[in-house]
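User: Reviewer 2 asked us to show a designed sequence for the structure in our supplementary figure. I'm pasting the structure tokens here. Could you produce the per-position amino acids so we can include them in the response letter?
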């Protein structure tokens, strides 16, 4: 029954019962005969999740328990929840799911096509490490031909800090670096066990004194939109507005779209095409 406000304890209990009852015991190698109710028994779910039967009973009876993130993860696995169902369960438990530390190394095919379809606006796709996964030709003309770089160097943070051409590209480089480091710290906090990301941070801190200083300042900022001015070697100064979007089906990937901030910049971009 729908009410004006959701009782999350009751909804958590109802959701756990519904997911348990839809499971087929045969999928778990369990006998399905002589069962008075559909699905798995509570004791079977408890064993799969590594918790006590009493704990499962109290959860399903909405007795005010708030399971930890580890227990929610275990229940999600035991109940064979989909990705969306798992996120829903974490939301009901008011817990934050553990981030996936295995970063995508390829953009989703639909995002690759979207980046191409966004032409003539420069666009690219990155993962949580800011590795560049896909881009269109307009992006390479404004910034750099990423195909000329070895894959480990196709990273927006590394390019901004350590690539000789990109270092000189931004008119207000100090602000761009400051925002980038603050955004990177937020990504690092969400993926603390990502060894590759930690290696990137260590390399940047060693190779760039400004990065090391900004990292120690502990600033955190998710910079999803704004404006950057680049000093293009052929087109002169171009003011760009950018927007960063997170696809619902691929939340670990970021779609970045650039557009001219004024008429003169649009003319300059048209000339590059």
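Assistant: Here is a per-position design you can include in the supplement:
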């Amino acid at each position: 029954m729908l009410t004006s406000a959701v009782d999350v304890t009751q909804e958590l209990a109802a959701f756990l019962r519904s997911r348990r009852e839809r499971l087929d015991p045969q999928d778990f190698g369990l006998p399905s005969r002589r069962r008075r109710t559909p699905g798995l028994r509570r004791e079977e779910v408890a064993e799969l999740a590594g918790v006590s039967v009493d704990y499962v009973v109290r959860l399903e009876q909405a007795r005010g328990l708030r399971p930890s993130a580890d227990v929610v993860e275990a229940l999600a696995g035991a109940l064979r929840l989909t990705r969306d169902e798992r996120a829903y369960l974490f939301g009901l438990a008011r817990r934050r799911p553990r981030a996936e530390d295995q970063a995508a190394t390829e953009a989703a095919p639909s995002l690759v096509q979207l980046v191409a379809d966004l032409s003539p606006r420069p666009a690219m796709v990155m993962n949580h490490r800011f590795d560049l996964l896909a881009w269109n030709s307009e992006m390479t003309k404004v910034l750099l031909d990423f195909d000329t770089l070895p894959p480990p160097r196709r990273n927006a943070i590394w390019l901004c800090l350590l690539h000789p051409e990109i270092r000189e590209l931004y008119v207000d480089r100090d602000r761009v670096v400051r925002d980038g480091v603050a955004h990177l710290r937020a990504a690092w906090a969400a993926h603390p066990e990502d060894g590759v990301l930690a290696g990137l941070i260590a390399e940047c801190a060693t190779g760039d004194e400004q990065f090391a200083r900004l990292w120690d300042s502990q600033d955190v900022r998710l910079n999803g939109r704004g404006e950057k001015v680049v000093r293009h070697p052929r087109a002169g100064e171009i003011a760009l507005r950018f927007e960063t979007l997170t696809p619902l089906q691929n939340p670990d990937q970021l779609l970045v779209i650039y557009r001219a901030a004024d008429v003169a910049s649009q003319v300059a971009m048209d000339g590059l095409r």
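For the response letter, you might also mention the following. The longest strand covers residues 236-245. The chain is about 45% helix and 15% strand.
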